[in-house]
Amino acid sequence: MELNKDIADISAAEAESYKGKRFILCYHDYNIKNFESALVQIEKITKVVGSPISIAVVPSIGAVPEEERERFCESIEKLKASGHELLLHGARHAANLSKERSVFGKSALMFSNNVAEFAGLNEEESQALLDRSIALWHALGQEELPIGYVPPAWYDNNYLKDQILAKFKTYEDRTTIYKKSELIVSVNEDDETDEEAMGEAATENAEKQVHQQENTEKFLSFGISFAGLPDISLGVAQTSACLTIQAPIGTPRLTIHHVDFTSIGENRVMNLIRYAMSKREKIFYRDL
């Protein structure tokens, strides 16, 4: 009996220690080139955490054999069936270098090894690229859009946030997650008795209520990523990751990439995930 009480006390203490402290575990850059080995990595991660995770999918498949395209599409269906939460992650995850960009956008390309597709684009080009990525997603046999959109390398432009939130529930940059929630606005039918007046008033108010119905919440969330970092900085980056997980504020995003299993090694990847699980509760984007 005493042993059971001690175990219960320890469990209660652990639960209290990360009460309200949460994090998101997301596998980034799931794509046509790596999906077969990525599935193995995701399975290993799932065994460590004991539950499904979030996965950011790059929808472009390029010129691949039909059999490979079908296997990729089937893998996405299997991920969904297994309970994983999917997000859309750019179009090609590679920038079109012929596009005009702001000074910020050009710098972002340099820092991101040219994967920051949306960085510094004007409004028209940004919308066109977003529409392109959505079309590629539908071409994979996916009728419904996923919950959120993750810009490659978290670099954006002046228009992307609003463009994404017009179609998706969540958008994110390096320090913040934005989540759109629907507000129900009630209508009092007794306010007007004249049908014509009611029709005009309803039309006039409809446009106002569209903005009232879409309320965007902001969540402090630092992105933790090792992708693209030089080998010499990986040790410091892992220490920084642990400090971010320890911090009493925010809902950090621990992002795992296919290359991490090589750059920092599988053992360190898994140990970092275990560390995060010991300090915080793992959630999905939909739980925010």
TrEMBL record:
Any single biological process term in GO: carbohydrate metabolic process
Superkingdom of the organism of origin: Bacteria
Protein name: DUF2334 domain-containing protein
